[in-house]
């Protein structure tokens, strides 16, 4: 709660107001996001699942090992990853899956789901912030494949994506692999529609952040006085989400009062899109010597495999 309050106040006192996207996912936010995942316009999950079904065997063929640790950062419930794990169980003599997530509860769901489909797979969940808990796995001796799926890399602003990929490289040993899900640049209309759906579910998702602040931080945001706005810039590859104040107003968070001008914006999320050439450059900049891209049939999404 203390970090939530601190981050919200700091963000809303900036000249360009902002709120961290990690706070979208309270219970209601997670429920709304599941609705987003099922939207016709939100192409990302379908594309990633297509690649996993069609290319998992080809991806795993690139790994010249008999034993393997598959370490997944931000693993969630494992419902997509299990597609690859089934293929991996056929290939490797000794396979261990180590899902990492900040939520112990979701890791329990993950382990139950994966072991139900692959009963003899060794699953060792690691709860906590993987930026800190990844060090706990340093002493393991098996070759490593680190997974970072779901286009999560797109939520890192500016140079933070490079810093994160370098962080993964620093954890790996020479010859280990990193598989990263990436949303690719494409027709700008397709991308913009994914963040401005016809049913207004993305709007609900964005506005729910204000509901959460009201509920948990004793604030008095008038939800009707804000609108969701999503935009995509094809020059930079950045899809940005904002909340727009529809009137001049003051909002209280506890005893603190925050002023909004009419049409002032709160930046809530970035979702960066990349080209394959961008990814090749990033791989070389972060110490990866080899990479191969596995895309869906439309070229909307990539699972990009890099080797240290």
From TrEMBL:
Identify the keywords attached in UniProt to this record, alphabetized: Methyltransferase, Transferase
Domain (Histidine-specific methyltransferase SAM-dependent): residue spans on this chain: 5-307
List the molecular function annotations (GO) for this entry: methyltransferase activity
Indicate the secretion signal residues: none
| A Pfam short name | Methyltransf_33
Record carries keyword Transferase: yes
Any one GO biological process: methylation
Enumerate the NCBIfam families for this protein.
egtD_ergothio
Q: What is this protein called?
A: Histidine-specific methyltransferase SAM-dependent domain-containing protein
Task: State the organism named in the record.
Answer: Indibacter alkaliphilus (strain CCUG 57479 / KCTC 22604 / LW1)
């Amino acid at each position: 709660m203390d970090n939530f309050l601190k981050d919200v106040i700091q963000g809303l006192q900036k000249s360009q107001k902002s709120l961290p996207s990690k706070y979208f996912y309270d219970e209601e936010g997670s429920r709304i996001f599941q609705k987003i995942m099922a939207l016709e316009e939100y192409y990302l999950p379908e594309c990633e699942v297509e690649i996993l079904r069609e290319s998992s065997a080809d991806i795993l063929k690139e790994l010249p090992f008999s034993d393997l640790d598959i370490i997944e950062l931000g693993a969630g419930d494992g419902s997509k990853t299990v597609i690859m794990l089934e293929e991996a169980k056929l290939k490797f003599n000794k396979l261990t899956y180590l899902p990492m997530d900040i939520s112990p509860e979701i890791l329990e769901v993950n382990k139950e789901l994966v072991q139900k489909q692959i009963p003899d797979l060794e699953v060792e969940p690691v709860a906590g912030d993987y930026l800190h808990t990844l060090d706990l796995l340093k002493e393991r001796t098996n070759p490593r494949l680190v997974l970072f799926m779901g286009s999560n890399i797109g939520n890192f602003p500016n140079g933070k994506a490079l810093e994160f990929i370098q962080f993964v490289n620093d954890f790996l040993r020479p010859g280990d692999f990193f598989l990263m899900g990436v949303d690719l640049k494409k027709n700008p209309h397709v991308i913009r529609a994914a963040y401005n759906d016809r049913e207004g579910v993305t709007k609900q998702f964005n506005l729910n952040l204000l509901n959460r602040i009201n509920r948990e931080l004793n604030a008095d945001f008038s939800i009707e006085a804000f609108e969701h706005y999503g935009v995509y810039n094809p020059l930079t590859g950045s899809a940005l989400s904002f909340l727009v104040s529809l009137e001049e107003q003051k909002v209280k968070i506890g005893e603190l009062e925050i002023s909004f001008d009419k049409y002032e914006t709160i930046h809530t999320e970035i979702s960066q899109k990349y080209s394959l050439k961008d990814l090749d450059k990033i791989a070389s900049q972060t110490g990866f010597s080899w990479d191969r891209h596995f895309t869906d049939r439309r070229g909307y999404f990539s699972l990009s495999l890099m080797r240290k």
